């Protein structure tokens, strides 16, 4: 926009007058002064390490012999794509992410519906549902590991009590993945539920009353009126969970270390173990960068699919 | 809190009432199921090894404090607690100061490309930590920051700052502008406005932001695993060491988990309303 094109009042541009009134120089420099510490710090602590890691991904670099480090171009990436373990880790990551996303949304929606009602002590009930979001993944991962124990675990006792067979959860390649999915669903469903609940409560009472007058049942009301109205909230919470599930490390590492075999071996574990257990820093950085790219691609796809459905 | 449940008719029939009661009962049963693991680990922390490894779970027993004693004598849990409090306390303080200044600038002052800058800051929250562990490890090694408090504090501030700025900005834009415009006319500087006008008004929101920062840093595991070994080990790292070659010390796990959970449970109860708003703020706005 050029100043000459703006409407003039008595020969002076309006825009200039407005800016003069707001004292541009002092306010803008104050903003810069207040923002600069955070922005500089974040650039130094996130952007620069990201580029460092990109550079590292083009090098042969081992933890034990850093003196032998040298440039290898894209060899780390080429090796990665030829490695079955990488594709297996990618598959495990996607299965884990898709499972927790679907389960957390369905259960979260159910809990949100239950919490979006009148009941004595509902405030307290909602508060109690928050607790899993705040607990330590290490402490609770170990707690679940204890509960999953085949011999003395409380979950198997429960299964046996209702006549179901006992399962050797964490030592079985079939059941280890469901086990870590259960723990992630336990921790994060309340988060999804409370956000959906907030979305439901922003739906006005007039809409609810109109639905009531039209004789819609509870489920029809939820499906036809509430679900479309809270779609933006669903997109946001889905996106948060998608990204956090793709990068999740603590719970799985504590519960199974990726095992048994490769049953729960996700990409973040692959990157960590390649770098810090096997000592191949260059390959580890390459895995991390592939992960960053996958997260970005899936985020764009996720937003595009939901945006199209909305139209 | 208001509810939007549509079917609230004065002519509720007996069947409808029974239906509502069963839904209430289901809500509570599900809640009980959800909180069982937390209850179970508290219970376990007071059990003897024999009760912990009993083939059938025991609910009634003579509580013992042996696990807690073991924790502090055998695993130097006291030091881990001190480390965690120092690191997490410093992190929370620094994050709040930096975030308050940045959020005020973003929410109140003319910043060129403000939207883009705010979105860029938020996008950093989604950065996978695994992507930066190698740079941090190698740089911290060179700077002699491995296994130091400062080494972890720097990283925790960076990881928590984006979300804290975003949250505080959300609380700040709800404060009526007349308040600080009047203060500007009174000749207060921006720093004075932040401290005397803004901070008192958004105190509940600031408290939630601080709690979120505290909790995430308090629970953080991956960075502590890579960057600390002896002097600066935090609570989660110490707890993970109860996984031993052939067994896991469940009693110690229970006691440590209980100690780690307690401050968080207390805070959640004291500030339940604000926390509910804090959780939903990022997503619903």
Structure notes:
Chain A has helices spanning 14-21, 24-56, 75-82, 84-115, 122-134, 137-147, 154-161, 176-201, 205-213, 218-229, 231-246, 250-255, 267-277, 281-310; strands spanning 8-9, 12-13, 59-60, 70-71. Chain A has 311 residues and is an all-alpha fold. In chain A, the strands form two sheets. In chain A, strands 1-2 form a two-stranded antiparallel sheet. In chain A, strands 3-4 form a two-stranded antiparallel ribbon. Chain A is globular. The model of chain A is unreliable at 1-22 (pLDDT under 50). With 285 residues, chain B is mainly α. Chain B has a domain at 79-232: MetI-like fold, CATH 1.10.3720. In chain B, 72% of the residues lie in helices and 0% in strands. Chain B contains 14 helices and no strands. Chain B has helices at 14-44, 49-52, 66-74, 77-108, 114-123, 133-142, 149-172, 177-185, 190-201, 203-219, 222-227, 235-240, 250-270, 272-284. Chain B is globular. At the A-B interface, α2, α4, α5, α6 and α8 of A face α1, α4, α6, α7 and α10 of B.
Would you spell out the secondary-structure blueprint of this structure?
The complex is a heterodimer of chains A (311) and B (285).
Chain A: E1 8-9, E2 12-13, H1 14-21, H2 24-56, E3 59-60, E4 70-71, H3 75-82, H4 84-115, H5 122-134, H6 137-147, H7 154-161, H8 176-201, H9 205-213, H10 218-229, H11 231-246, H12 250-255, H13 267-277, H14 281-310
Helix pairs in contact in A: 3-14, 4-8, 4-11, 5-8, 8-11, 11-14, 13-14
Chain B: H1 14-44, H2 49-52, H3 66-74, H4 77-108, H5 114-123, H6 133-142, H7 149-172, H8 177-185, H9 190-201, H10 203-219, H11 222-227, H12 235-240, H13 250-270, H14 272-284
Helix pairs in contact in B: 1-13, 3-13, 4-7, 4-10, 5-7, 7-10, 8-9, 10-14
């Amino acid at each position: 926009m050029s100043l000459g094109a703006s409407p003039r009042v008595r020969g002076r541009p309006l825009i200039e007058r407005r800016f003069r009134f707001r004292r541009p120089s002092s306010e803008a420099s104050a903003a810069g002064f207040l923002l600069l510490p955070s922005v500089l710090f974040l650039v130094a602590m996130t952007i620069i390490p990201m580029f460092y890691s990109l550079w590292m991904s083009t090098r042969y670099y081992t933890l034990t012999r850093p003196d032998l480090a040298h440039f290898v171009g894209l060899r780390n990436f080429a090796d990665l794509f030829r490695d079955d373990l990488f594709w297996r880790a990618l598959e495990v990551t996607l299965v884990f992410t898709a499972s927790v996303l679907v389960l957390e949304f369905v259960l979260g929606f159910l809990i949100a519906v239950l919490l979006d009602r009148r009941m004595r002590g509902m405030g307290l009930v909602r508060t109690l549902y928050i607790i899993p979001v705040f607990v330590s993944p290490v402490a609770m991962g170990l707690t679940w590991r204890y509960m999953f124990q085949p011999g003395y675990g409380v979950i198997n006792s429960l299964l046996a009590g209702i006549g179901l067979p006992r399962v050797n959860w964490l030592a079985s390649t079939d059941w280890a993945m469901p086990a870590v999915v259960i723990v992630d669903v336990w921790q994060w469903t309340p988060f999804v539920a409370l956000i959906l609940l907030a979305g439901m409560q922003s739906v006005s009472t007039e809409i609810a009353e109109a639905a009531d007058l039209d004789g819609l049942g509870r489920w029809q009301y939820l499906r036809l009126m509430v679900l479309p109205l809270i779609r933006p909230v669903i997109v946001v919470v889905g996106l948060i969970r998608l990204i956090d599930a793709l990068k999740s490390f603590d719970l799985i590492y504590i519960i199974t270390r990726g095992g048994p075999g490769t049953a729960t071996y996700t990409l973040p574990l692959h990157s960590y173990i390649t770098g810090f257990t096997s000592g191949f820093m260059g390959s580890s950085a390459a895995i991390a960068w592939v992960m960053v790219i996958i997260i970005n691609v899936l985020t764009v796809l996720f937003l595009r699919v939901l945006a199209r459905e909305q139209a | 809190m208001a509810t939007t449940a549509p079917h609230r008719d004065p002519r509720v029939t007996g069947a409808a009432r029974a239906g509502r009661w069963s839904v209430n009962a289901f809500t509570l049963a599900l809640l009980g199921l959800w909180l069982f693991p937390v209850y179970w680990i508290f219970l376990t922390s007071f059990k003897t090894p024999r009760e912990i490894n009993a083939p059938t779970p025991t609910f009634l027993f003579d509580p013992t404090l042996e696990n807690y004693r073991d924790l502090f004598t055998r695993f130097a849990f006291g030091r881990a607690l001190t480390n965690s409090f120092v690191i997490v306390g410093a992190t929370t303080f620094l994050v709040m100061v930096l975030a308050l200044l940045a959020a005020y600038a973003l929410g109140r002052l003319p910043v060129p490309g403000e939207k883009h800058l705010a979105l860029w800051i938020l996008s950093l929250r989604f950065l996978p930590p695994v992507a930066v562990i190698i740079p941090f490890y190698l740089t911290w090694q060179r700077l002699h920051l491995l296994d130091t408090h400062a080494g972890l504090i720097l990283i925790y501030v960076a990881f928590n700052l984006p979300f804290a700025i975003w949250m505080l900005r959300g609380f700040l834009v709800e404060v009526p502008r007349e308040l600080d415009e009047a203060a500007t006319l009174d000749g207060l500087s921006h720093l004075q406005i932040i401290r005397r006008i803004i901070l008192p008004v958004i105190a509940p929101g600031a408290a939630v932001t601080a709690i979120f920062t505290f909790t995430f840093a308090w629970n953080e595991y991956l960075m502590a695993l890579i960057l600390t070994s002896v002097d600066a080990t935090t609570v989660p790292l110490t707890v993970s060491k109860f996984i031993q070659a052939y067994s896991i010390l469940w009693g110690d796990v229970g006691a440590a988990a209980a100690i780690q959970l307690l401050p968080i449970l207390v805070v959640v109860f004291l500030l339940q309303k604000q926390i509910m708003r804090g959780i939903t703020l990022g997503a619903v706005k």
